[in-house]
Each structure stands twice: as structure tokens, then as C-alpha cells.
Give the backbone structure.
Amino acid sequence: MIPALMPNYNRADLAFERGEGAWVWTTDGRRFLDFGSGIATSSIGHGHPHLVKAIAEQAARVMHVSNLYRVPQAETLAARHVAHSFADSVLFCNSGAEANEGMVKAVRKYQAENGHPERYRMICFEGAFHGRTLAMIAATGNAKYLEGFGPPVDGFDHVPFGDMNAVRAAIGPQTAGIMIEPVQGEGGVRPADLRFLRELRTACDEFGLLLALDEVQTGMGRSGKLWAHQWAGIEPDVMSSAKGIGGGFPLGAVLAKEHVAKHLKPGTHGHTYGGNPLACAAGNAVLDVVLAEGFLDGVDRVARKLWFGLEALAHRHPSVIEGVRGAGLLLGIKLVPQVTNGDAQSAAAAEGLLTVAAGMNVLRVAPPLIIGDAEVDAALEMLDRTMRRLTPSTAKVAAK
């Protein structure tokens, strides 16, 4: 008999009842170091007092009124995002998939309103992940996600990640824009070369296309800058964000320059819950923490420590680890074909460390941004024991 809770997830047999910082405790009293952050979402950790206080106080006042009325909390949050990004205007929604849907609609609407309704196609990249709606599984292009849902939504062309020649070859009279994650998370924690991002910006300017960045996973400080594209010194025309911007509370956003945002007029797009007082109170609390002086510098410093630690781990365990990839606190351990990322994820959990599997047989490491040296050291020790569970280390092999 099917369970009451629909079984569309492969859930580990772990149930968490509380968390503090980067640690969580199960209902049976076990403690885990959370280096998955709810898939890069619990950006300022668990039980952060400022976030908890903001949510509790707002919930006691008013949680939801709909977008039929002004929402001062959303107005404040939007103004802060505008002040700290390329954007001139922000639309709030509930999730990353919704943000990406809104972003694609904004690109298409821009082209239509500027005399090019035939321009509706987006160039996307192999290995991408943009969400689970019908349009976003088409944008993702992964056959596994498309199977069983009928003809894919039209309008998405896929080229190899990082191949500028393929991008230029794919641009045609119906192309509206280019959509890319600065770091492919689900697709294997693959960072785009910064030069490639700059070349995409140039190509968009050359052909009258819009550059649409999916920063659902990379944004809100995870790369060591507020937005990952800032490392390349470019600005998109429109960008999606979600996950970390609410610190665990459902919140998504489409950030856009004026020439794009002005075409999303009343009736063109909307959300019942999007940008409600409670979600935006959470978003403002997260920004309070992330924008505090020295916070992002601290993320960058601890991320570099974790990177070098993972590189050393790979050196000690070459029979398990092929390499390390990623950016900031979105890192991936590429495993040899003989070891699956599922096995590694289970072995890490057995050592008390939560991680997330990603494509291309990668074990994803995405801890809360509030971690320090102690959490990095603990995680590296757990990962070392994890790799020893999977295969003997080089030192042990040599000793034999």
C-alpha cells in the first residue's frame, strides 16, 4: 500500500528535530555535522537567533496578505537587493523553479515588446539543472527528468558547457537569450570558467540577446561574493535566486535591470504567496547577517581552507577521489567510477557528516556560510574516515 506521504523522494532514514549552527540532532539523539545545508539552502545555519526572532515576530503580526496590497517587508527587501546587485527591480516568488520560470518569461517578454516576438528560444547547457516544472525540465534537458511527461516544452537549445564555439553556432533568428548557472550544482559542481562567462556577456551584447543567470544555488554569498557572477566582473540582464536568500524559509526572486523588468506589467506574471510578509522578514534577516562587515570575507577564507583540505584528502585517497571542483562553499568531490556518490554519501552519514550527491558521480559539499575552522577540521576528519570506509588509503596500501 502506498504511504500517505507520496514516495517521490529517496529519503534517508533520518529525522531531525533540532539544529544549532552547522549541527543537527535526530529524533533518536544522534548528532550530525550538516555540510549539505538542505541542498545549499540553510545559508546562515540552523536556529540562527536573528532569523528565528525575525520570523517569530513577523508571524505574530501578519504572515500573508497577498499581492493585492502593498507589502512593506517586500519593498524593503527589494530595495536592499537592488542596492547590493546589478538589478534595478526585483520580483519575489517561492522557489528556484518559479524564479527560473519568471526569468525565462521576462526574457521572452523583453524580446516581444522590443519588436522580436519570434525570439523566444533560450540557449542552455548540458549538465544544467533549472528546476522541476514542465518548462524547467525542458530547460534542464536531462532525459531522466523528461521521461514520462510528454513532449518537452519548446524553446530550449542545449550546447556543451563551456564551449563558446557551440554557443555562437546555436545563436539563430529565434534566440532570445542565454541561460546558465555560474556553477552547475546538480550537474556535478562544475564551475564555468570566468572567461567563458565574460564571453557570454559579449555575445549577448553582440547579438541583442539577454544574459540570464541562474544563481539559485550559487547566490547569497555561497561563492564568497554575494553573487557568483561578480567574480567574472560582469552583469547579467536578469538573474534568478532562491535557496539561501531565505535561510531555509521558502523564498525566490527574479532580479532584473530596468530594460527587462519594465515589461512585467500587472497581469503578465504573479504569485499568490510570493514576497509575503513572513518570507520577506526572513529574507531581510538573512541579508542582515550576510551583508555584515567582514562576513563575506570570512566565507571566502573558510572556503579556501576547505578547498585545500579537500585537495589534501584527494591526494591521500587517489583510489577513491579523482579530484575536487567547485567554488566558494559549493564544492564537489569527484569520485572514481568504482565508488558511487550514493555509497560515499551513506558512508559520510555513518561518520556523522551530511552531504549531497550530485551528477557525474560527485559528492557535493555545501555547508552553512557561518562555519568556521572548527567545523572545517571536523568535516575533513569525517571525510577522511569516509574514504577509508570505501577503500584503503594510499598509506595503508603502501604499508602492505
User: Anything to note?
Assistant: Confidence is low (pLDDT under 50) at residues 392-400. The longest strand covers residues 321-327.
